[in-house]
Sequence to fold (222 residues):
Amino acid sequence: MRVKNIDQILSEIPKPRRHQKRKATKLRFFILAFVSLIGLMTLGWFNPEQVKALPPGQTAIATGSIWQQGSFPVENFQAYTSPYGYRRSPRGSGVEFHRGLDIAAPEGSYIRNWWTGQVVGLSDNTACGTSITIQSGEWKHIYCHMNGHVESGSNGTYLIDREGGIQIWKGQQVATGVRIGRVGMTGRTTGPHLHWGLKYSDQYIDPARVLREMYRQQTVSR
Ligand SMILES: [Zn+2]
Fold:
């Protein structure tokens, strides 16, 4: 298989639908995204192994400025502690496929919605811990190991993190950049971090690719 360069890969990642911008928070996320790029470069993730792991069948879309609308998903960024892809299992000796990007931040740091969308899943009884899944067009973004838990009442199901002032209902619309929870230790985890998963058309992709393109476009837009 021919190895593609990163620009080709990024041009093949379809973009979520366009929605309103949140200019006020842009500078903050630019800074965070800059930090994220340093982290990505340090780890040198865009190697041929991961290129081969790209899901097939993604539609080619011309590069535009749309990615600059995305929000970096966590405040108080510390480090990328585990990339997307195959890794030695943190438990035992096997190899596993890590379906997301682990972003370490101090416990209690706020998690922000990457892209405007609808809350389609809430859970607190799997290895993912207390989690939210948000759908934005063909995209789904998944946030794991959050503080709080899920409750159900006559009005529906919601995630509650009282100390953090968070209450998110299943089915509700969430704007880009809104605080949707806090970094915690729920589920299977050895330290406080956000496990961030991204799916397009129900196939997992590497969130680092999206972050890198967000950084590139937010830099250009300034
Ligand atoms: Zn993870």
The first helix runs from residue 6 to 12.
